[in-house]
Design brief:
Number of helices: 4
Protein name: Dehydrogenase/reductase SDR family member 11
Family: Belongs to the short-chain dehydrogenases/reductases (SDR) family.
Pfam families: adh_short
CATH class: Alpha Beta
Distance between the termini: 36 Å
Keywords: Oxidoreductase
Order of helices and strands: EHEHHHE
Number of domains: 1
Largest sheet: 3 strands, parallel
GO molecular function: oxidoreductase activity
Shape: elongated
Strand order of the largest sheet: 1-2-3
Length: 124
């Protein structure tokens, strides 16, 4: 953006609640990668502030979202993906896109740092 003279853009990282806590699931590598995204997002935000840039940086941190992620992981300990879907509440992908649209709709002087979205009743 800066190379092209854009100083009012918006960078949105789709992260995870796993980037802000340690989940009680066998997902330590996933959690570590999401913590890295959290740190990189904040580092980028601070770098842009130091440059007096008006580029905004936001991290959207969803909890359980109904996607292929659980299926792709196979089993999670003793719980298979079908049981996990049955036993836990999930957000829809639309819920996440609505958060992105909200973030983009804020006035230029508003910096949304983090949006954490979880379904009601999520255990984590």
């Amino acid at each position: 953006m800066r190379e092209r003279g854009v100083d009012d853009g918006h960078i949105i990282h789709i992260n995870s609640i796993a980037g802000h806590s340690i989940l009680n699931l066998p997902l330590h590598f996933y959690t570590a990668s999401k913590h890295a995204v959290t740190v990189l997002t904040e580092g980028l935000r601070r770098e842009l502030v130091a440059l007096n840039s008006h580029i905004r940086v936001t991290s959207v941190n969803p909890g359980n979202v109904e996607t292929e992620f659980v299926d792709a992981m196979g089993t999670m300990g003793e719980t298979n993906s079908a049981a996990y879907y049955k036993e836990n509440p999930f957000l829809a992908s639309r819920d996440i896109s609505d958060a992105v649209i909200y973030t983009l709709s804020t006035p230029p002087h508003v910096q949304i740092h983090d949006i954490t979205i979880k379904p009601i009743g999520e255990k984590f």
